[in-house]
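ARCHIVE CARD
Drawer: 12
Card no.: 0347
Subject: one protein chain, sequence and derived structure
Cross-reference: see card 0346
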Amino acid sequence: MNTICFTDDEASLFAKQNKITILRLLGKQPPPKEASWPIPSEVNWKYLNGYAEMWTRAWDGNTFRWGVKLRYPSRVYGVKETWEYYYCHPVDSQTGEDLGVEEGFYYKADGGSAQDRWYSPVTMPTEAIRWTIKVDTTVKRVQELTVKEIQLVGINKMYLDDLGQTWSTYKRGLQSHWNSLHARPVKKGDGYVCYPYDMDSFRKLMYGLEREYVWNGHPIIQDNDDKLFYKGKPLVIHDNPYFQVLSCEKTEGVNHGNNS
């Protein structure tokens, strides 16, 4: 069985409804230079055998073609989530009567407390999977998400940024949600990379309240060739990145557990 790991938030949302949208970054992004070439209204995506291929006309009139292997192509998956296996064989303390075995799988998304401890979705055995989902995968840039897709991600209208300003649209909510997950520079190869919603919001996050060009106390330095460095290593910024939009719908499948 092909499987996909849900975060706790994704699993909690899916426990309440039959359809959700999951966002997953692509394994690689188009080269920074070419990323600005496509004319959005003329971008065409083709999906075949687990690959996504973009065809478009560049600003100079030439055809631009770029492809990437999808980690989650359109198909049916079993959902892995935070879980626990519980086993108990109680005996009546007064009569000594055997009360029988109590056992089963428990899921954090259902809101209960762990009997022992919660285990990572990565470790979930196949027999614990309670949901199967049909996934329809497309590729978009984060700013291309529709309001309906944003709602299915579980994002609300109202968010507060680090300056205390109130945002009251789904797009602003998506911007805050996305940056909280992907704007932070992370180690990749010999340098760092990050995937902010856009450069304006990224700069605001870097400046913060102290108006310094830093991230968590570490300066982002730009040299004379306009190259960026973070913690002394090259930094690549993919603003408005490409990612997989996974439209997930429950199918008739297994249903294990005691509180599922």
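Annotation on reverse: The chain is about 15% helix and 35% strand. The radius of gyration is 23 Å.
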